[in-house]
Structure formats: structure tokens, C-alpha cells
Amino acid sequence: MTNTTSLSKNAAPVTDADSHFDRKGLVQMILLGLLLLLPVAAYFLGHTYYVNLASRVTIIAMAAVGLNLAIGYGGMVSFGHAAYFGLGGYVAGISAYHAFDLTPFMSWPFSVPGSDSLLVVWLAAVVLCALLALAIGAISLRTTGVYFIMITLAFAQMIYYFANSWPTYGGQDGLPIYIRNTLPLVDSTDALTYFLICFTGLVFAMALTSRLMKSRFGAALTMARLNDVRLATAGVSPYPIRLVAFVISAAITGLAGALYADLNGFVSPSMLSWHFSGELMVIVILGGVGRLYGPLAGAVLFVMMETLLGGITEYWQLFLGLVLLGVVLFAKHGVMGWLAGSERNE
Amino acid sequence: MSDAILSLQNLHKRFGALQATNDVSLDLRPGEIHALIGPNGAGKSTLIGQIAGSLRPDEGRVYLADTDITTMSIAERARLGLGRSFQVSSLAEPLSVMRNVMMGVQALQSHSFRFWKPVARDQQLLKPAYEALERMQLSHRAWTPVFELSHGERRQVEVACALALKPRALLLDEPMAGLGPEGSAKLTELLEALKLEVPILLIEHDMEAVFRLADRISVLVSGSVIAHGDSQTIKQDPRVREAYLGDSDA
Predict the structure, then answer these.
(1) Residue B33 structural domain
(2) Which residues of A, range 239-258, sit inside 8 Å of B by Cβ?
């Protein structure tokens, strides 16, 4: 309880990011540069495994960028973002399934065929996740605090159990994507190409967040998080502002989900489970709540621990827990706060 | 209807057995400061809630100019020109003074679903906000985070935030509370200059300030207005002396 309130109150103040070159800018450049260059190097050294690992980091970071918009910038502690990640994944999976099968997804009242085009899949994932978030958010945002956390969790679990019990698309066994969905002109099955697609997605999501938070909408969202009574007294209703932020947040996470399913060639209910919602929250907190580069730093740390420690012991999450404890106790602003210093107010 | 900017008509509000507001009618006319005083528990906060929009009256209406605002939300009332300050100052503390004031300007200009243009260099927002701060003699603190301000300065920021809405009426809830004599005198001066432009409904404990500032005074006791008039009338009213001044003025 205390945790969640401090989470939203301590989240990023309004920042005047990257107006000049400083320590923060340097840390951010190094982080993004390494994420781009290491997989390229690995690819030419023939280590495709590491390229795919980098794609995984990138996609999870992107999903966390979405969640960070809700938690860090909007003060809405959603414990159900796996719902959008999973829905995005299932959009990719189901679309590919019907394209492969040459059967329509639905034939009444109008015919919707499957598609193996990434552009179509992404658009569908974003639109459907936005609609789902609009419905879930419209109800959940009537509550605050612990109730908001629980109601978002409840909705996500409903969708999880629904996917689990729907045999058409594999039920609990999940749904394979035999051939990765395609883009015009480029070969999406190439590991490096796919990594670059994911990387572009991540940069796009971060740039969008940054731009958004500097706009009038961002100013209103920041004030909704810090003091919603003040926002209302200033003449702006907090509820629609929060709802739109929640929808954008879900759309970003959903797009990441679609990328993830195509990366793995597989989608299963585990993408929808509350474990993943929890992991995303851990990543956001590790990296720095309400920090633009926080989700990226958090995802790098998370996947590195999972891969390195996970190779040594299956109890690697014990160490993850210790690191999380350390961050929460000693580095309130997460890894980014520790590396790049605290944010400046304006 | 009269030329009142803000008028309350026969407001009633009950909480269970407690009649917190009992048939209250009062109005606020152009160019005046109308003070509302009353001992603790008189129902002042409940009444403010009904004017500002956080509470709905059980009966009665609230008008801002000729618009019935009884069922409007807090934000709608604000956009129509009802500015308010809080008893315990309520600002976004990590943000600068400017950012707090700018929000009112933003709400007035358009809806807030504008996602692209950065606010940091938006003259359309900065200029009016700066003017509101100047009115409260606070422009030198524009870029200071609110948590670094003194108590008195925060009071001024609240009023500046309200001014940013280009209000037709101001509702100030104990603006002098917790201010030293110096701060209180300064704010009194600022409000005196302000009232010619924007009429003020002033809820205040500081009797000295009330008697100096108010053109009219209404006294609220147990949810009802028991007396109404200028300072002299109120000072001499025996019921008021008994209910209120009697114990604090001895």
C-alpha cells in the first residue's frame, strides 16, 4: 500500500529533458547505443542467439515504456498490462493462423480474413488494445489506489482464463506462428532485421512518450498524478485525461506484444498472466518510475539477470528480489536515477 | 434576476441527522468582498463544497451569473469562471509556480487533448500565467518549485491560479490562515485591489481582516445564516456576539 502510493507520488516530476548535453544525456546515449551496436556486432560474429536476446530486451522494454506511461507519468498503478501484451500477441498469432489456413477469422456480419502482413497485424493490435483499454480503463479509473490495482488485475485474469479455455486457438497450449509475419521490402525472418524493427518500435514509443509529456496533455496528466483536486480546480477534469493516457499506454504495450509473438513464433496464455504484469512492474520500478529511459534500463537488467543467473540457478528470482529490494530502499529513482542523477523540476 | 455574480438560493444539505446547511441564501455582487464567518462547525466547509462543486446540495440552486451550476463538476465551474483557493493550500508541489498557474490558462484556452506542441515555450500559456503572477506580486518566484515557497507565498500562488481562469467570482477559503501579521497585511492589500475587478466571497477566521476588507458580512451558525450586514451591523448584533464573537473577542 505504502509502496504504491509512494510509487505514484515520487514518480517523475515534469522534466526539461535533454535540453543540454549532460550526464543524463550521456548515460542515455550509451544505453541506447549499446543496445543497438551489440546485436549488430553479435550478428556479424554469427551469434544469432544474442541478436534474438536483444530483440527480447527491446520488446520487453517497449512494453514497459507503455506501462511507465500509466504508472510513472499518470500515477495509475496498473497490475493488468499483460492483458494488452497478450492481446497484441494473440492478434499476431490468430492473424497468422488464418492467413496460413486460408480461413477467415470471421465471416459474419462481414468477412475478416487473416493476414500475414506485419503492418496489418500491428494496426489491428494497436486498435484492439486501445479499445480493450478504453473499456477496462473506463471502469477501473472510477477507483483509485489498491482498488485500481485489483480491478485491473481482475480484468487481465478474466482474459487470461478466457484464452486458456478457448480451444480454437490452442487453449492453454498456445498457438504457434509457423512463418513470421512479413513486411514489404525487408526480410523480417532475418534476426538482425527483426531486431532493427523492434528497436525502431522502442525508439518510437520513447519519443512518443517524451513528446506527449511535454505537451498540454502531458502537463494535465502530470497534474492529475500530483494533485487531481488542483487539476479540477484549474478547470480540467482528471478522468478523461487519465483514460486517454491509459489507452495510449495499453496500445504501446499491445504493439510490443505483437512483436513478441512474432519474435518467438508462438503465443500462449502465459503472455496474459499476472506474472508478466508483475514482471513489467518490476522492470519499471527497477529502471526508475517515470523516467523516460527507466523501462529500457530495467529491461536490460531484468533480462540480463534472467539469462545470466537463470543459467546458474533456477532460483535466480531470489537475486532479482534482492536487487529490487535494494532499488526500492536505496535508489528511489531506480537504476536511471542512480546512473544519471535525479530529475530536475521545471 | 439581480445583478449578482454568484448566488445561492435556499441551499439545504443534510448528513444523516446533521443539518449542515439549512436554507442558506446569499449572493455576491460586482465589486464587493462578501465575507462569510462562523464558529467552527457552523457548516462553512459544507457550504463551500456546494459552491465549488465537490458536494451537491439536497435542495436549492447555485447560480454563477445567470447560469445554473448546481449540478456541474468542479472543472466545469472553474471554466465558467469560478476561481477558488483552499483552506489548506492545494498545489502540485514538485512543480514550479508557473506550471501550477499555467494549468488554469490551458483549461481556459481549449481542451487539454493537445499532444504535440511543447508547453515549455508556449507563449500563449506563459504570458497570461505570468500576468496572473504579477498581479499577486509573485513573478520573481515564477520558476521556483512550490515546495520551496513560504506559506504566505503559497496562498498568493493559489489566488494567482484562480486569476489565471479569468474568474468572474473568487471563492477564498481562509486565505489568511496561518499567515503572520505581515503576510496577512500584504494579502489584505492585494485582495482590496482585486475586488474591484473580481468580487470575492471570503471565508475567513481573521476578524481584523474581515472587518477591514468586507463590504458585507454573513454569519453562519449551525448551518443557517443568522445575521447579515456591514461590519458595524455585525459587530453590534447581539446574536452574533453571543454565537461567535462572545467567546473569541472577550
Answers:
(1) 1-81+168-250
(2) 240-241, 244
